[in-house]
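Quick one: Bifunctional protein FolD from Amycolatopsis pigmentata, structure tokens please.
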Amino acid sequence: MTATILDGRAVSARILERVSDDVEKFVAAYDRAPTLATVLVGDDPASHTYVRMKANRCAKAGISSRRIDLAAEVTTAELVGRIRALSDDPAVDGILLQHPVPAGIDERAAFEAIAPGKDVDGVTRTSFATMAFAEGGFESATPGGIMALLDAYDIPLSGKHAVVVGRSPILGKPAGMLLLARDATVTYCHSRTPSLGDRIAEADVVVAAAGRPGLIRGEWIKPGAVVVDAGYADNTGDVEFEAAAERASFITPVPGGVGPMTIATLLVQTVRAAYEHESAREKEFPM
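--- reply ---
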């Protein structure tokens, strides 16, 4: 294997150390901890595991977490109502709706019930627009984590050709926008793109975000390319790891690459939201 591993666990650990410092300063200044509310619908085992991981990371960083568990039979209206209540709760700084929700629920309607100032997972239309226009909104957590990981390894993006495989509104599309903002030339592909291998072979940076295990063959990777695998299913990514690692210059493992960076970004943005909420209160009620 010739590629350098993009170690998301190590980089996220350093980020979370800084988050812990920021939380200590916040608590000293405002006599409360930043609070993240997590909404989990149904009993999907993987979703429960992810929520526990996020709660554990919150606890280690000193962030307060509030978990709301709802039955799979909950209606869209009921879910939207619970999320709107959290949006109106001044004690809550960030809201995370664990994805995916059970079939029959309008996930987009539920996402849009999150107040933009509490959308620390970057899933609303407002967050996407402000991110795309560089107007200071919250980044989608996984794409934001990808960018932080590339930055940690000083990987240049300006002038590079990036191919994003995937078009999810919370992963593929925002990842392309963030790469574009770094002056990369971005091509979007997906599972139905004709001659997908030819498109990937042109890429200096490949972001695999289709959620299709083994979709991207190692032999397609351009020698020296950077490969970021954001796919995950049964500990398997979208990229044929061993074969791709023989050709890439940098590559993320699955697990241990993008996943830890997603959680780190979520917590960074929760603390930022808490500071912004306190700043807004000080302006509204000056001493």
